[in-house]
UniProtKB/TrEMBL annotation:
Keyword tags: Cytoplasm, Exonuclease, Hydrolase, Magnesium, Metal-binding, Nuclease, RNA-binding
Any one cellular-component term (Gene Ontology): P-body
MF-aspect GO terms: 3'-5'-RNA exonuclease activity; metal ion binding; poly(U) RNA binding
Protein name: DI3L2 exonuclease
SUPFAM superfamilies: Nucleic acid-binding proteins
InterPro entries named among the record's database cross-references: Dis3_CSD2 (IPR041505), NA-bd_OB-fold (IPR012340), RNR_Ribonuclease (IPR050180)
Compartments reported by the entry: Cytoplasm
Record's keyword annotation contains Ubl conjugation: no
Length: 216
């Protein structure tokens, strides 16, 4: 079959591998000529450019890597909308460095959700006996709201909202989840309750059944 081999060489670099490239192209022609079972195909070998500057390793040049091997990068320039409620469920504990000034002013809040950063909370928000008996609150869930996070700090600044109760119990855990996702679970107002049927038990009126499709 007819075979088209395309190549381009740099005349200034004949002593650095041109003979090797010609041998490689000759081998390719031999391999293609042995395949007599297929129809004639035009096979093009991509242009080979070699210069003295390209003799070194090319692994570090991202332009020579395939598209699927590249990792795109970006930079956040503006927060359009804050979707998170800034509330998290977690535990409080004393700071490790007892000799620091921060130890006498703040405690550490560790959220259950590890996607939320740890935060410093003021000791005035903690229970009164937390400093003397911190082990009593090792299993108590708290709700903390993040109010600030400085660029030069590894920890955010938070404010304890309330104590939920013991971890592992259904009611504190449920209340914590609802507060984290900003779900309003407060009692309905009297105005909303007055919109409901007052005479119980309530049944669907016949006129409603007549104009509706029964999917029961």
């Amino acid at each position: 079959p007819d075979v088209i081999i395309e190549a381009q060489f740099d005349d200034n670099d004949a002593e650095h591998g041109q003979d090797h490239l010609q041998d490689m192209l000759t081998d390719d022609v031999k391999k293609l000529s042995l395949d007599t079972g297929e129809k004639a195909k035009a096979v093009g070998i991509g242009d080979v450019h070699r210069t003295k500057q390209d003799d070194g390793p090319k692994v570090n040049d991202p332009k020579l890597l395939p598209e699927k091997a590249l990792q795109r990068t970006a930079k956040v320039v503006y927060i359009l909308e804050k979707k998170h409620s800034r509330a998290a469920t977690g535990f409080i504990k004393l700071l490790a460095d007892k000799n620091s000034e921060l130890f006498r002013r703040c405690a550490m809040f560790s959220p259950v959700d590890h996607r939320v950063p740890r935060a410093y909370v003021s000791l005035t928000d903690c229970p009164p006996d937390f400093m003397t008996r911190p082990e009593d609150y090792s299993n108590t869930l708290f709700i903390c709201r993040i109010v600030d996070w400085k660029e030069d700090s590894n920890f955010a600044t938070g404010q304890l909202a309330k104590s939920l109760g013991q971890a592992g119990e259904i009611e504190p855990e449920t209340e914590g989840i609802l507060m984290e996702y900003g779900v309003d679970f407060s009692d309905f107002s009297p105005e909303a309750l007055n919109c409901l049927p007052q005479s119980l038990p309530w049944v669907i009126p016949p006129r409603e059944l007549a104009k509706r499709r029964d999917l029961r």
